[in-house]
User: Fold Uronate isomerase from Raineyella fluvialis.
Amino acid sequence: MAVKLATPQTSATRQKLELHPDRALPVDPDQRAIARTIYAQTKDLPLICMHGHVEAEVFATDQPFADPAQLLIVPDHYVTRMLVSQGMTLPELGVPRLDGGPVETDPRTIWRAFCTNWKLYRGTPSRYWLEHELVEVFGVDLVPSAETADALYDRIASVVADPDFRPLALLDRFNIEVISTTDAASSDLSHHRSLAEQGYGERVLPTFRPDAVACMDRAGWRRSVDALGVAAGIEIGDFAGFLEALRSRRRAFVAAGARASDHGHDLADTTPMDGHAAERLFARALAGEQVSLEEARAFAAHMLFEFAGMSVEDGLVMQLHPGVLRNHHDGMFAQHGLDKGFDIPHAVEYTRALRPLLQAYGTDPRFRMILFTIDETVYTRELAPMAGVYPAVKLGAPWWFIDSPEGMRRFRETATETAGFYNTSGFVDDTRAYASIPARHDLFRRIDAGFLARLVLEHRLGEDEAVETAQDLAYHLPKAAYARRDQI
Amino acid sequence: MAVKLATPQTSATRQKLELHPDRALPVDPDQRAIARTIYAQTKDLPLICMHGHVEAEVFATDQPFADPAQLLIVPDHYVTRMLVSQGMTLPELGVPRLDGGPVETDPRTIWRAFCTNWKLYRGTPSRYWLEHELVEVFGVDLVPSAETADALYDRIASVVADPDFRPLALLDRFNIEVISTTDAASSDLSHHRSLAEQGYGERVLPTFRPDAVACMDRAGWRRSVDALGVAAGIEIGDFAGFLEALRSRRRAFVAAGARASDHGHDLADTTPMDGHAAERLFARALAGEQVSLEEARAFAAHMLFEFAGMSVEDGLVMQLHPGVLRNHHDGMFAQHGLDKGFDIPHAVEYTRALRPLLQAYGTDPRFRMILFTIDETVYTRELAPMAGVYPAVKLGAPWWFIDSPEGMRRFRETATETAGFYNTSGFVDDTRAYASIPARHDLFRRIDAGFLARLVLEHRLGEDEAVETAQDLAYHLPKAAYARRDQI
Amino acid sequence: MAVKLATPQTSATRQKLELHPDRALPVDPDQRAIARTIYAQTKDLPLICMHGHVEAEVFATDQPFADPAQLLIVPDHYVTRMLVSQGMTLPELGVPRLDGGPVETDPRTIWRAFCTNWKLYRGTPSRYWLEHELVEVFGVDLVPSAETADALYDRIASVVADPDFRPLALLDRFNIEVISTTDAASSDLSHHRSLAEQGYGERVLPTFRPDAVACMDRAGWRRSVDALGVAAGIEIGDFAGFLEALRSRRRAFVAAGARASDHGHDLADTTPMDGHAAERLFARALAGEQVSLEEARAFAAHMLFEFAGMSVEDGLVMQLHPGVLRNHHDGMFAQHGLDKGFDIPHAVEYTRALRPLLQAYGTDPRFRMILFTIDETVYTRELAPMAGVYPAVKLGAPWWFIDSPEGMRRFRETATETAGFYNTSGFVDDTRAYASIPARHDLFRRIDAGFLARLVLEHRLGEDEAVETAQDLAYHLPKAAYARRDQI
Assistant:
């Protein structure tokens, strides 16, 4: 372990871990007082979790979580990447290797490494979420450190073993009204069928994620197209068949309760290809011909345009999450696969990129689109101006690295003046760390309370308006943004 | 109307509309106290309005405004775009169709839609300005809502009918020392002649805006060139004649009191075309040949370089406002024309783009240039560094969507450290909403007072210096930035 | 002098210049109290100055500084550029002309111009640093103005003449534990040999800066390559010889105590050239053939990749400072040469640009890289995400125009949540203004204290943790980031 700082960590002297009721509220006493009042009116509202990455299988099988390391560390790339940044390796943290090579298997060893390096998380949202989870979910009052690691481990392990801590039971405990999973276009949705049979069909919903077949440059594109065909019961022999299979799966998703599709393209481009170019390119790719990066991007753009058209037909809300260069380090991708903390954002252009799609559908009352970004420079410049005029467009909550106290605050400061509050989606949690969901919603409600309290103190908003707005942002807006079209 | 929020608007319970004397001042009590002191020294300074979009005809004919909807809603794209973003249509808001098709004609209906949706403006500068206007200009004390809409309408209508509310009378009431209009290069300036005859020749000034002839890709370019020729009394047969006509009109503008030219190009590029390329391209375009987007951009860049040279000759201050993709939605443009809220900013590069112009004229004491941006990322990176060294360059006030409390605050925070205060233009209001001008200046003075108060409290500035700086920013700097060259 | 503001400067009435003990600390009283406590624990820590631009000769010869103008104005482009921006010329400020033409030679005249225009520096970091220097270093208590200029000049001149004010003596007075100079790859390091003989070999260290030979588009590239060969004692006849000479000089720098290399390329690109393309391009350039800008950039990118490999071999920390268009105004460059305030930043991309280098070396425990930027939009989007996962990468302190109170604050707000504190380098002063070094470190410690105090008040960090973090950022982290590899 390469963390060799000049001074030993002294924070273990602050032994008692507590959550202060005013945490993440503003510093100014008057502003804090108003923020407290606002937050008191939102903190108990149910959670609407319409863009999640917890696997459907976790809910469908409802098995207990394995151990503290498997619950809180190994699958959370926010947590592992910080340790990697200071010299630990993914195998040392128990992250599986694709070649089945050896990795750390002792969860307690992994847990100790994490606790010993607790210092590294200072100032990060991971620290904030983890403190919330330790206290609120696991009833712990020890600050993580080398000395407290074992005691913490034992406490959490006992909670995890409790039947009340199974995934479905946590839905109630976490006050989750509804949660979405993210599912490949080729998913057979069997887990959601099973959930429906268990009575959770209105509470755990699938989301249609077709990136694997829309992006020809993704590894295994051909395999994904084949799987799509199998799921749809359609022999995909040409582009028309491809579109038909996608439409068919979307109908199946809608039938299973899906409210949205999700698109994580590299770029935001939505330019449709001319004439029959998409058909020809698809045929070439299907025949196994090499497709250039430029061609793959043109096809991906064309597909975003197609998906918007399908949304008009079937009512799925179209979510767009562009601007991340996935798998920045080839070696790490080859060794460990996707989503291991080596995804790095880049600048992304929306104004010209979305123009073709918005010209076609942006004022169509049947179309709904939620735009996310990890490049926050576009809030004032591009996204708020578009959300502030196109009826189809809502601005999503700050995403990924900017789903954080400072990121959320900057989002309100930069987006509100042009888009208003009511052209935003309200909070969207977007995580695969199930136990962190309540912490994330809670943090958002606190930051919004602080921002609104400033507007009140600056006499830009009445206090009653601030409370109503906070409630809308926390609950009513996400519920409305992802409502079934027939229930709007 | 598609605004269907889960909770009814409760703000109508806050019945009394009042302007708090401390609005938009900082939250911290000590900072607010200092800000109050500073603001007290600027609030009554006259308004210098050197970049406005109120039509010259409004002043020249001095007719009363039609009704509350025509005064406050229909022509203000900030206001209409927010309603459109939630599902209303421009025709429902009374915005004329180019084809003369039917639009809402009852001003009271339009006014009611606006009041009913007052909630949407929470947190926006429109809300701030409108509250100021309702109280200060119209003497209203009712919060807009479905219930209060008619009472508000009647009150405003009676004010609008008052002779003291005519455009020229408002100049005094608004404490406007001088105001500019924006006029096409082909304008015959007849309204300004009429104003001069009425004794307003030093108070209502034209601004030379030649975009329609500098940008070959604009609709009606050829018609605009012809109109320019007519106004200049010159048969424009080649590029030399074109330049001669422009020079001639600039002289006429200067004679009519103009202080500045204004340039709203898509990009900031100022690269002159080589040798006789501009002549040849102009000839082709004049002959009706198709000109590519690239060629049109090269010509526009060449023209910015030419206009800088003309400014050296005639002393007009050159204002540059690049970076907006106008008419993002073709359908809306076809139906309603320019400036209907569908203009979306995009990233714009200044460092390389302005280099040719600044190499030629940036250190020339006869040249003055004011740079505006709507892409605020360039303040620290490009604009403040250029304004902080080139004597010709001043940084304009935050423009368009960032002419707002948060935008102004960020502007000071990001531009001041590198450009200082004295390389900025002071406030430039830039609006076609006449009644909002006092509110805009007032807001700017409040935000500057708050920023300066922080510097005082952080012991980075003396309080006497802060007061003097605030007065310079509010009044002396814009007056100096746009002074006649012979009066500097 | 073109500064003709409408109101006279009144700040001379605030005659007494004092440094308030709470300067640059936060406005909120509770936050300020905590910040004071934190700052008290860092203010006396020694200064680690690992990226400086004071010339080695200044230390080696240890001559007294010439006069107040030569010490504080003429060589400081932050100071001169502000006066130039308001109409003074570089010759009027005594800045030498390359052609030997006349410039102002009376230091008192230059000093008076500066004092008379003190107003221009309001709100800038130069003002902050200069106030600190005047009071702390020169014992002055007069606010600069036309009236006080001469008294100030005399006081400073007498201090400068004092033997205790010689460069080496100031190392102790400034509490500088170690300072780096910046030295061309071709430097014979004779000044550092002399310093070693005087017992300063561990305290004044060279830094290896090879831009002049890595960037073929720089003026005098061929001459720089020749000088490199001479210094290395190698006849550079081909690319292999070039690399051998670089390696040889790096070894000499390491032997002289160097800890780091420094790279100020235009772009951040690190893509290695294919096969033997670099060899061939180098041969062509060496033969005097014209090299295009694109070729020069490809070569510079290739060299960054090569330098990373050399860092793996010899342990020098690789510092990257891209994104500035040097010598924006050709005429000023021709007249006065480099570093005269006419360098303007531009947007720079890191995510794709650094990928080749990071794929090769980013997880190699032998490699260390510190990334700087002047384009602060990349903190949340690109740099913090990379520093937050790649063990080789640390984020440098805000650089150049953003080495300022607001810039530093924004840096912590935008970088910390994703990179944490411990993937940053701590403070790096980066200045050629020797007397400003204590002020710069002091300001950084104050801003960090304020930021950490907010985290404490928001219950996101314990106060003991905040103190420890502040000490790490001020002292331990820069010391560790630039430690000899064998001493990590």
Q: What stands out?
A: The radius of gyration of chain A is 23 Å. Chain A touches chain C through 60 residues (CB under 8 Å). Chain A has two domains: 21-63+164-487, 64-163. The longest strand of chain A covers residues 176-180.
